[in-house]
């Protein structure tokens, strides 16, 4: 699955992820940047990474590692529902090099798709409670999407077997819903993308399950703040690298690490340029009014070195440190950015 994006060599010299079996590091809603997160070319950022790894190792004590459960069969989609081009094949599409621009008519369609994605995510969040399985969340999300006449974008994308991603605790992203029940103190990122009338709407949020400790609450809070700070940088004519700069400046205050997954253009195509880095970067180009893309930083309490399970999707931190992520689809405007997936 080739949504692996080559990063700027001066900053990111090597990959942080280990692959097992047929593992392919990607995101059906994220391309992943290969980099070694603590080698940022700056002494202070190296020190911050070391602090973060200490925080992560302390947090892991007393929490059981994430174990995979049983994955139920793929859910059906009614024949009358419009399907994305990749449906019916396990082939993973390449990231489209075009940057998706919208006129008045297509913006209406984007708003509709994103509004539905936001409502589905909000509903999924109400299900986050101890003893609820991620498979139950997937079933509820699937049903709500098809009831609205839309298609769950993850389903069948590069062979992904479910309609939503549910990433628990040390799972950075791409978690496959299964029979594992949520436990008191867990955190879970639910990533919803829907395909409605030929347009994708993409959003995610990390939820607290039951009683969660204060350090974990802070991780989740800061991750949301980072997403919003990245969005605040968006405006017609502004450099794309301003997004990563805003996020990195905020992260550095807390000693967390920024995981090496990136945002992407979204619209009629699931994944396209521009590539949205959440770290300091050299990404060329400037934002243009009418563009849509995602901003979706993932922060870790410890190291961002990860491995992918042999399901080819589930990316977890090697040191077991917790991760949180938030994501919105945004539309660049002359005066700033409109959050299309705001509910």
TrEMBL record:
Enzyme Commission (EC) number: 3.4.11.18
List of residues binding substrate: 174, 271
Cofactor: Co(2+); Zn(2+); Mn(2+); Fe(2+)
Catalytic activities: Release of N-terminal amino acids, preferentially methionine, from peptides and arylamides
GO cellular component assignments: chloroplast
Residue numbers binding a divalent metal cation 1: 191, 202, 327
Coiled coil: none
InterPro entries per the UniProt record, alphabetical: Creatinase/aminopeptidase-like, Pept_M24, Pept_M24_MAP, Pept_M24A_MAP1
Cofactor note text: Binds 2 divalent metal cations per subunit. Has a high-affinity and a low affinity metal-binding site. The true nature of the physiological cofactor is under debate. The enzyme is active with cobalt, zinc, manganese or divalent iron ions. Most likely, methionine aminopeptidases function as mononuclear Fe(2+)-metalloproteases under physiological conditions, and the catalytically relevant metal-binding site has been assigned to the histidine-containing high-affinity site.
Binding-site residues for a divalent metal cation 2, renumbered to this chain: 202, 264, 296, 327
Region ranges (Disordered): 60-92
Annotated Peptidase M24 domain residues: 109-333
Keywords, alphabetical: Aminopeptidase, Hydrolase, Metal-binding, Protease
A Gene Ontology biological process term: proteolysis
Annotated Basic and acidic residues bias: 77-92
A Pfam family it matches: Peptidase_M24
NCBIfam families: met_pdase_I
Family: Belongs to the peptidase M24A family. Methionine aminopeptidase type 1 subfamily.
Function, in words: Cotranslationally removes the N-terminal methionine from nascent proteins. The N-terminal methionine is often cleaved when the second residue in the primary sequence is small and uncharged (Met-Ala-, Cys, Gly, Pro, Ser, Thr, or Val).
This protein's name: Methionine aminopeptidase
Species this protein is from: Aegilops tauschii subsp. strangulata
